């Protein structure tokens, strides 16, 4: 089965408050909860074709209510400034004292509807005010046994700047820290600036940065053992996987030591690495990661094709760069770090990315991810507070998301508040993701890129085509990235027939699984099958079709009479 991930922020996913006051408090703007993610909501997500839900912002992190505001980003705080690895975010609980149970029940509901649950693991840094009140009795807290007089020791959990006080070059109020700890983005200065991850401190995995990145891994650094305990704790809660934040900032040796230990106890658990360095890809996969972000490759290029008029034929080179590991690369068009497709910073409409999404979902057997609201054309063009108007949905502020609220309809999850374009876009995602999940040609089949073989009536700058095949199932994908309707001819070379072991047929049907219409001999799509929908499927015989702007087709080729 193809892994299809739905990233969700519980903080705003079930928040039905429409106040949307800039820099508003939780009381003013509202906040979603674990309990509000009902079986009906989960079934609606599952029916999109999703297999895994990534619950973002679960583990307790710094918020202005519980932490010093001078070192907290936004009132709701960054989910990546963890304050207690053994606790969940109190904001997400209806009964704060019962918050862990409410989370456990969410995991149970997720499993009951046939979905799996992923949460974040943030290994590189924690909040400057990290303090675990919920740790098991046998666990010593991070930094509890540190000697802050040592700038570095593998026995320490943090890096220190002895004889220096934390003094950023901007106002943080009366917060004090002495000696200063090293800031999370490898900033070895007591004076970080606002672009540094000043709200966090870096964890020490035995790498002596001040001594040429010397690795002191024997004996095993103390932090390694603490992280193992943390991941065993969450795996024991029924969590099925971890999206690992900035995995490449933690030494690969640690992952080689850690991941096998987790999988020995919990074989079903998957690890997804946020990794932006292609030169590290193979090492981190060998260390045990199941999947890696494909951000600097496929994401960047599909965005360029969609919004910057990059040549579509370049997609071929992008997938070829990771061809040997492509089945383990996670494709996506949105996440919390990236701008929304429908934002004014990207392409302004969610529908414009339909052909790019078809590529992401069907080009390979690898997993694909969507971000809650992407399927509704969420624009992310609010100025929520700390986040500002940047085309992203805020991760730092309390906010109600218009498109999600329209779909959720006060907890009914029936989509009654959606407009026509939103409904059509969600329908597209539902069809596409289910096609990707259910068809063996996509889940396990071979792919043949057809772009090189095209000549007349095919603009390689704007169109793309490939075939997927498994057994007798043949799927032909043809995509139009142009902003106008085009007439194209697709030529399938003899090499494709040979490579995929396909038979040549004089008469086949070509059914578009997205529009649920048949291609006819005139290159048009019609709702009924008849003599006109029998086309020729032989080497070097052009297959003609009309493609609307920003659309694509997934043609099921079948050798059968109507």
Notes on the protein architecture:
- By secondary structure, the chain is of the alpha/beta class.
- Among the domains are: 4-122 and 294-437, TIM Barrel; 441-558, Golgi alpha-mannosidase II (Immunoglobulin-like), CATH 2.60.40.
- 23% of the residues lie in helices and 20% in strands.
- It contains 14 helices and 26 strands.
- It has helices at 10-13, 26-29, 39-47, 99-112, 222-235, 252-265, 281-286, 295-307, 314-321, 354-362, 402-408, 420-438, 440-443, 494-500, and strands at 4-8, 52-55, 59-61, 82-88, 116-121, 125-127, 160-161, 180-181, 200-202, 207-208, 214-215, 241-244, 270-273, 291-293, 329-332, 368-371, 446-449, 463-470, 473-480, 486-490, 505-512, 517-519, 525-526, 534-537, 543-547, 551-558.
- The strands form seven sheets. The protein has an eight-stranded parallel barrel.
- Strand 15, helix 10 (354-362) and strand 16 form a beta-alpha-beta unit.
- Helix 8 runs antiparallel to helix 9 and helix 10 packs parallel to helix 12.
- The longest helix has 19 residues, at 420-438.
- The relative contact order is 0.11.
């Amino acid at each position: 089965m193809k892994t299809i991930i739905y990233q969700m922020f519980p903080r705003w996913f079930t928040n039905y408050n429409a106040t949307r006051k800039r820099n508003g408090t939780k009381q003013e703007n509202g906040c979603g909860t674990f309990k509000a993610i009902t079986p009906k909501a989960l079934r609606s997500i599952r029916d999109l074709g999703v297999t895994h839900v990534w619950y973002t912002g679960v583990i307790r992190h710094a918020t202005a209510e519980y932490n010093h505001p001078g070192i907290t980003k936004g009132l709701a705080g960054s989910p990546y400034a963890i304050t207690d690895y053994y606790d969940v975010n109190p904001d997400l609980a209806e009964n704060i004292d019962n918050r862990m149970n409410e989370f456990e029940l969410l995991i149970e509901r997720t499993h009951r509807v046939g979905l799996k649950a992923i949460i974040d693991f943030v290994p590189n840094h924690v909040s400057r005010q990290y303090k675990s009140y919920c740790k098991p009795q046998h666990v010593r807290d991070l930094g509890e046994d540190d000697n802050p007089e040592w700038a570095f020791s593998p026995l320490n959990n943090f890096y220190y700047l002895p004889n220096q006080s934390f003094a950023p070059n901007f106002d943080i109020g009366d917060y004090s820290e002495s000696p200063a700890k090293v800031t999370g983005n490898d900033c070895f200065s007591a004076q970080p600036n606002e672009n540094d991850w000043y709200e966090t401190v870096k964890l020490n995995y035995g790498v002596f940065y001040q001594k040429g990145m010397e690795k002191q891994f024997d004996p095993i650094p103390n932090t390694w053992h603490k992280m193992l305990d943390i991941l065993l704790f969450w795996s024991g809660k029924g969590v099925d996987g971890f999206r690992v934040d900035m995995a490449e900032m933690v030494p690969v040796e640690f992952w080689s030591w850690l991941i096998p230990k987790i999988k020995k106890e919990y074989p079903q658990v998957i690890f997804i690495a946020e990794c932006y360095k292609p030169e590290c890809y193979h090492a981190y996969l060998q260390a045990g990661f199941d999947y890696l972000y494909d951000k600097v490759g496929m994401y960047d290029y599909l965005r360029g094709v969609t919004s910057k008029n990059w040549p579509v034929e370049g997609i071929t080179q992008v997938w070829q760069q990771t061809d040997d590991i492509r089945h383990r690369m996670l494709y996506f068009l949105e996440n919390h770090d990236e701008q929304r497709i429908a934002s004014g910073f990207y392409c302004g409409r969610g529908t414009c990315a339909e052909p790019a999404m078809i590529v992401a979902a069907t080009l390979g057997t690898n997993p694909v991810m969507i971000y809650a609201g992407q399927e509704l054309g969420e624009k992310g063009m609010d100025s929520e507070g700390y986040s500002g108007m940047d085309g992203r949905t805020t991760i730092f502020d309390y906010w109600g998301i218009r498109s999600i609220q329209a779909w959720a309809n006060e907890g009914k999850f029936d989509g009654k508040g959606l407009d026509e374009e939103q409904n059509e876009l969600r329908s597209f995602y539902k069809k596409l993701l289910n096609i990707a999940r259910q068809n063996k040609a996509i889940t396990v089949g071979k792919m043949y890129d057809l772009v090189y073989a095209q000549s007349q009536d095919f603009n390689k700058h704007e169109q793309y085509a490939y075939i997927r095949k498994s057994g007798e199932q043949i799927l032909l994908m043809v995509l139009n990235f142009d902003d106008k309707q085009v007439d194209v001819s697709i030529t399938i070379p003899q090499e494709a027939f040979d490579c995929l072991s396909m038979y040549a047929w004089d008469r086949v049907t070509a059914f578009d699984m997205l529009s649920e219409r048949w291609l006819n001999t005139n290159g048009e799509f019609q709702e009924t099958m008849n003599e006109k929908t029998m086309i020729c499927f032989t080497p070097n015989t052009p297959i003609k079709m009309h493609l609307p702007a920003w659309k694509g087709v997934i043609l099921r080729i079948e050798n059968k009479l109507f």
